[in-house]
Amino acid sequence: MSILRRNNVRVTGAATGRPVVLVHGFGCDQNMWRLVEPFLAEDHPLVLFDYVGAGRSDLSAWREDRYSSLDGYARDLVEVCEELDLRDAIVVGHSVSAMTGVLAAAAAPERIGALVMVCPSPRYIDEDGYRGGFSAEDIDELLESLESNYLGWSATMAPLIMGNPDRPELGEELTNSFCATDPDIARVFARTTFLSDSRKDLETVTVPTLILECEQDAIAPREVGAYVHAAVEGSELVTLDAVGHCPQLSAPEATASAIRAFLSSGAR
Amino acid sequence: MNPGAADDPDAETTGTGPAFSALLEDSAEDLYESAPCGYLSTLMDGTIAKINATLLGWLGLSREEVVGRKRFSDLLTVGGRLYHETHFAPLLRMQGHLGGVALEMRTAAGPRLPVLVTSTLKRGSDGEPLLIRTTVFDATDRRAYEQELLRARRAAEEAREQAEADRAQLREALAVLQRSLLPDTLPDLPGVETAGYYHTASPMELGGDFYDLFALDDTRTAFFLGDVCGKGPQAAALTSLTRYTLRAAMIQDADPVDDLRTLNKALMARYTGDDPRYCTAVAGVFERVGDTLEIRLASGGHPPALILRADGTAEFLSTLGGMLVGVLPTAQFVEVSTVLGPGDTLLLYTDGLTEARVGPDRELYGYDALRSFAAARAPAGGRALVDALTGLLSDFGDGLDDDTALLAIGVPATA
């Protein structure tokens, strides 16, 4: 199985220019980027993919030990960059994938030349003077929420979504399929996302970095944005006039504008 | 009001009754406020713009506390909010509609309210999303039922795993027990080629076939093969008794007919009254004389032995008249003798082989087919013959539903 198929890689946008890799976070898949795509496609080749376990990736390639740490997700990102032989790419990572981008940039510095962190959080759980916004019990509650929404998974979703990369139309008939994931896989991704602590990794960032946060974000509050901004030397922080955790959907144009401005000025 | 309505049996259905009038007076506004489900409209940032009385009642909140002050996600548990932000909100943006999502709401009194939520995006004339309309159904009972289903599924999963483990353990125990009823290996005898095979029809059931072969002294060897009635643990107990009785009898006095009589007595004594147990068996002794084997054997109700000759023929060694062992105190057993020369082989088998079902009509394989099969392979050494028959048994597939034992005794062809 090639990496391109394993991660359901899609390359679109301009034929030449500095490549932009758009990386989805926990919850859905590469469809998260579809509203900002048109704003970036003119000047940049765009690379989109699904992590193994998400979207229309090859679920048979999923291994619990690999995807129980953010390093496993970072390896997916690095392997996609290697497969496409990207150089000096800009990695735009949403939510937990902002941190995946940090790990990938440290692992493959020649391939990743700049980072855009969309609503990042290096640590979701409150701890010793650090406020991430959540308690460990909150995360258990999320796992319950996941469970209660997966009653129908095994019977109907799995055979249609799993192992059908050749026939994407099968997945399209399903409502909610963008965010449908095997419950066991989702549980592992949720734990990895919300229990990880990547604060130390922020210090490793040496590439130009843009942090995008929302005015009001229930998952990554502004004090977390400020924390990341302070921890990544020379980073730029932009607060979008948007509510929620997904500005690429709720304010796609503003999100794209901020990224474009960063690319044309500070990304070098 | 129609004054005649009470007397008019058709009033309810013809639209003239008081109930129908009341329905007409039910305003859309009242329907919204007092609907049996919660209604909620929010701006695109989630700020609640409108909420109905039903939902306010469920949550124990006043309109003033909510409208313009809270976002939809503020009404959810923290875990629900995380789910909302990571799944619900993006999906709603991408699809414009989202149905049947299970969430939990926080009520002012404390307890959580399990709900099922459906949302639709309302767009303006330019296609831009304007607001989100949401209906909320109380899913308390349903969630309890689902929890029960989940619990039952987990219990079923655990029970299945336990059952599989138990089965594996039982299979292993049965295999050990089954092996204990057969010789580990056949003794290595100079100038004699022997081979045995046991086909187990089901790993979950003990079979009732048995065979054995053991040296009596420097020149004489005893052997037997048989089939007890039935299957399972009872048959295994009978097999064990049969095997060790015959073995002891043959060591004591190697006379095939006497030995079967001893077995007959033992079975009659052990299985009395309304639990008769019996078997069929061939017991015999062979003695090496020069380059031949002189064989005496006796049969009690067992299918005839088959002899493959060095000249390429195959014939049955008739023991007709021998009676089942363990049924009658005065049972008769028939003794015959034969001599095997170089290249000759004697085959003993149980009826699993001849009673296998073959072909589209599932006919009995039968004695003629067995003789032809053997003749086509004669002359054949004991090992080669048993190997060929093992292949035949395997080819029967599900046509073979009984255990089958094979024992071949031959004199190697001279070089």
TrEMBL record, chain A:
Residue ranges constituting the AB hydrolase-1 domain according to the UniProt record: 20-257
- The transmembrane residues are none
Key words, A-Z: Hydrolase
Gene3D superfamilies the record matches: alpha/beta hydrolase
Task: Check the record and name the Pfam families matching this protein.
Answer: Abhydrolase_6
Q: What molecular functions are annotated in GO for this chain?
A: hydrolase activity
- Family to which this protein belongs: Belongs to the AB hydrolase superfamily.
Alphabetized PANTHER family for the sequence:
ESTERASE-RELATED (PTHR43039)
Its recorded name reads: Hydrolase
Q: Which organism is it from?
A: Streptomyces variabilis
Automatic annotation (TrEMBL), chain B:
Q: Which GO terms describe its molecular function?
A: kinase activity
Q: Which UniProt keywords apply?
A: Coiled coil, Hydrolase, Kinase, Transferase
Domain PAS spans what residues?
24-76
| Coiled-coil segments | 142-180
Task: Specify the superkingdom.
Answer: Bacteria
Q: Do you know which PROSITE patterns this protein is assigned to?
A: PAS, PPM_2
Q: Where is the PPM-type phosphatase domain?
A: 194-396
Supply the name of the protein: Histidine kinase
